[in-house]
Amino acid sequence: GKAGGTPKSSNPDYYDGDIPFLSIKDMTSQGKYINYTEKTITKWGLDNSSAWIIPKNSLLYSIYASVGFVAINRKDIATSQAIYGMILKDNVSLEYMYYYLTYYKKNLHKLIETGTQGNLNAKIVKNFDISLPSLKEQELIVNYLSLIDIKIELLTNEINQLSKFKLSLFEQIFV
């Protein structure tokens, strides 16, 4: 894997093209799966920067500013240098690595380079000490954690519905 790159914003010919261009904001607003990006770049912008195309179903990891966000892209995309794209080997489950790196975020403070803001770099990410069980075990872990995610989503939706119901009762009772 490697980090992306940002075409010069001073050149409008580099932007508003056909290539989705991922930002940290896109990652934090969409969660686990990236289905779209706010910005796009042109082929010229891609060729004249250190940006590269990260194939769909790769792992995306934020390494600048909002460090430690993890996502999976559902389409080919380019990213800024704040995001490290990982193409995994066949013996590694994409979903397992998503969960592992989500968990690993709590350890990042020990590895972050300090400056005005804490950042990681490609070398640090490549040297993460990752526990990797067999692919079969990875898949069992993913299935279990995915079921918990589904339950969390259902309960979150139920809480949101109850909150709306409560507000509508307030309006009926206290008007």
UniProtKB/TrEMBL annotation:
GO terms for biological process: DNA restriction-modification system. SUPFAM superfamilies: DNA methylase specificity domain. It comes from the Archaea. Residues 3-162 form the Type I restriction modification DNA specificity domain. GO terms for molecular function: DNA binding. Keywords: DNA-binding, Restriction system. InterPro entries: Restrct_endonuc_typeI_TRD (IPR000055), Restrct_endonuc_typeI_TRD_sf (IPR044946), Type-I_RS_S_subunit (IPR052021). Coiled coil: none annotated. Pfam families: Methylase_S (PF01420). Belongs to the type-I restriction system S methylase family. This is Type I restriction enzyme, S subunit.
